[in-house]
């Protein structure tokens, strides 16, 4: 038995891979649910009900999918250029705290229509600043950016913790470390009244399309793909590698920072150190499930959000720890890797 | 300045260094072994978490402490098999596979822990390893409390570093590992099976990582809680580069790192008015600085992160 590289990758395999991966992950997670002594099909039924069973839960799922789409896009654009930005979690927090700082004090006097776009840009810029450190270390000292961008996550969260314990602390929060809330008119308008769903979802979907257009229709998109496929070859073909990577990093870090900004301005209104239940890391899974396709990211983020929101309800009624959602999402990354492998290779006797 | 000298003169600092260094020594050696054979194992953070959880759980359910360590090692080895399947057999991206293993291993740890140990006000505890009383040495003035009041796994960690240095540089097995990490095709021409070597190195390395995690719950603390590994795995990956892929320097690097960490912990209480988060940042900043300084100078195993497929370039 040996492996043989496929000559071409038919479309049905590319579409089928994530579906097969998700089914495989659900089966594996189902085994874990069964071991815990709960009925598996009933558990999955309750996950779906928990995610879509009511108006409230459906809007909650979409609200949860919004930051996942943005962190997923952040990972997808970076990985496409083989820039291993694992720092989306830290960039998310920096975007969030920047918005809290400017939206609660410095710029709060501005009217909403001016303030909101400004804050979104500020959040994105904060995310960019953070990714530029690992990128600079890679370009200047050839340090692998995986570890540095990961370590930056811890530094960023501690930095946020320091600010919300100090200068940005909300004096009205009964001593809890949380930032001052952003001004009411800095909050994003709701997409659906009487729900938490805000226009951030629309922003994320539009950005997915924009990123797709950038990647498939612009010179920069072509250069970033070339940098990922074959860096040396790209340099020979005249691609300015360093400059392309800087642009990719800014796009990636900006999207992750924007995710943090939107989460603050759309949902919470203030920053705590548990603002993100791992949105940055889940974004990596989302990007891989989408096979780094920006449009696919929207759907992969939905799947991930369904698991997280649905598992909450299922956990309460069946006594299965909510961590089953994290396990399933992590498993789907592993099964997706294997599925992608079989889109490239076939087994021959 | 007297603050600094006071800290340096306290036996507690030196005892803390060895204690803080122990999980890092195990983890760094584990990562180093994998990388010497050409496989980057970013599963380390999750494998350490799982080792911490499963080792603790075994002891909580009545196993003795060394059995707990063994259980952790076996669990780590199993994650090593998973990582090898993905990166060696299938030749997938070592970056993404490793992150996948970490995400899976850590969420799986929390799942198992929550399933077996229900939420409680105070987390359940075990009786951890106690400091070994070494005749004569432990009762020396200053040196005794500073260096010889450690628990057994700490001495084991130092021993493992020395043994690994010997194996890597002085034995045929070590030569096979290094060849596979430098040039698997040449290794194969010499009759070494790169696939087997990589599997072996990743499995053994992952077992060491899990033991490093188990030290946290079986010696440093006496309970398990999520996120307790706190990026130690990533720090180990940085320490491998700092150590230039040499076990002896890995031991030194982990101790040096632990020195700064123990020092900042004591400085935190001695100096007032500086936010404690600044001190907590230092380990991560130091790791990044170490990478920046050493990355150019270090000699990377040439086939690191390159999948090996027979007959394919």
Keywords, separated by commas or semicolons:
heterodimer; A: 349 residues; mainly alpha; two-stranded antiparallel sheet; 13 helices; globular; B: 313 residues
Structure, explained:
The complex is a heterodimer of chains A (349) and B (313). In chain A, 73% of the residues lie in helices and 2% in strands. By secondary structure, chain A is mostly helical. Chain A has a two-stranded antiparallel ribbon with strand order 1-2. In chain A, helix 4 packs antiparallel against helix 5 and helix 7 (200-217) packs antiparallel against helix 12 (294-318). Chain A is globular, with a radius of gyration of 21 Å. Chain B is mostly helical and 313 residues long. Chain B has 13 helices and no strands. Chain B has helices at 2-8, 11-36, 44-60, 65-89, 94-116, 143-147, 152-170, 172-182, 184-189, 194-220, 232-242, 247-270, 276-294. In chain B, helix 2 (11-36) crosses helix 11, helix 3 packs parallel to helix 5 (94-116) and helix 12 (247-270) packs antiparallel against helix 13 (276-294). The longest helix of chain B is centred in the middle third of the chain and has 27 residues, at 194-220. Chain B is globular. The A-B interface holds A 3, 32, 36, 79, 84, 86, 137, 141-144, 146-148, 150-155, 158-159, 161-162, 165-166, 281, 284-285, 288, 320-321, 323-324, 326-327, 329-331, 333-334, 337-338, 340-341 and B 42, 82, 86, 90, 92-93, 95-97, 99-101, 103-104, 107-108, 110-111, 114-115, 230-231, 234-235, 237-238, 241, 275, 277-278, 280-281, 284-285, 287-288, 291-292, 295-296, 309.
